[in-house]
Amino acid sequence: MTSLSPSSPSSPSRIRIGSAPDSWGVWFPDDPRQVPWRRFLDEVAASGYEWIELGPYGYLPTDPAVLAEETARRGLRVSAGTVFTGLHHGPAVWEKTWEHVSGIAALTRDMGARHLVVIPSFWRDDRTGEVLEPDTLTAGQWRDLTSLTERLGREVRERYGLTAVVHPHADTHIDTEENVTRFLDGTDPALVSLCLDTGHYAYCGGDSVKLIETYGERIGYLHLKQVDPEILAGVRAEGTPFGPAVARGVMCEPPSGVPALGPVLEAAGRLGTDLFAIVEQDMYPCDPDKPLPIARRTRAFLRSCGV
Question: N or C: which end of the chain has fewer CB within 10 A?
Fold first, then answer.
């Protein structure tokens, strides 16, 4: 692990660190195994973070006045909202997609955030592992995916003042280095940026530092996460779906996994841009007493890296 000082030339001092409901084991708007939303807000504030994401829409209050009061009295601010899309299915899904996106985008804007994290739909179910569709796209589906993502980026920017940052994700069609670069090369940089999730990219065999150095102008947002290489090797060999892999602990507490976050933060720091880097340690489901100590340790570790 490379230690960084705030005065070093590549110091990530313009990177703002936060956390998210995901780091508290929250994947769904409502699930009895998840930490209640008030406890999440209390604990993320207690761990020292100032910035949070909204998480799955409906987990936190969707009334902006209520949510603003609840976050403000804990000293928290919102960095982004999150939407799930299946735009490779073509124009037929646009209206339904926009209905889903617009409500979340409005809440995101009303909370003062400027980013909308866009996650492609899964080709196999994240709870059950059921295969829902082929894991590769046809040329026509790639055209629909890129063109409609550009449309989404334009609409959320013009209507809500938000930047769409697309999140490569395991068990989706934007996952490996090949697919991520194909997606970036097929979309307009003025409309579509990337939310680089270091854990998901490593899970799918990618090199985050290389991606930052190659496509730096497209990196609009970061999710900080690590994978356990031994567990990853096992789930890859067995073809384990992402949800069960998370339950086995494939996403681990920094700095015990890969990629090393020091070099990632150094590379991001060299971009010379303001970035959010939101900690997301996938661990659904988890014991409700597990997240807070991890959050405190992770924040202390990241501070030692100069952020």
Answer: N
Q: Please provide the DSSP assignment of 65-104 as one string.
A: HHHHHHHHTTT-EEEEEEEEE-GGG-GGGHHHHHHHHHHH
- Alpha-carbon distance of 81 to 79, in angstroms, equals 7
* Residue labelled with tokens 């060299």: 270
Query: Minimal CA–CA distance to 203: which of 164, 166, 174, 165?
Result: 174
The structure's pTM equals 0.94
Residue showing tokens 């090949």: 178
Q: Give 135-193 pLDDT, tens digit per residue.
A: 999 999 999 999 999 999 999 999 999 999 999 999 999 999 999 999 999 999 999 99
- Condensed to tens digits (0 to 9), the pLDDT of residues 72-109 reads 999 999 999 999 999 999 999 999 999 999 999 999 99
Positive or negative, the CA dihedral 42, 43, 44, 50 is: positive
Closest of 232, 239, 160 to residue 201, by C-alpha: 232
CB-based contacts of 262, cutoff 8 Å, min separation 6: 1, 2, 3, 4, 305
Instruction: Tell me the sheet residues that pair with 79.
Output: none
**With contact defined as beta carbons under 8 Å apart, do 248 and 231 qualify?**
yes
Place of tokens 């999440």: 40
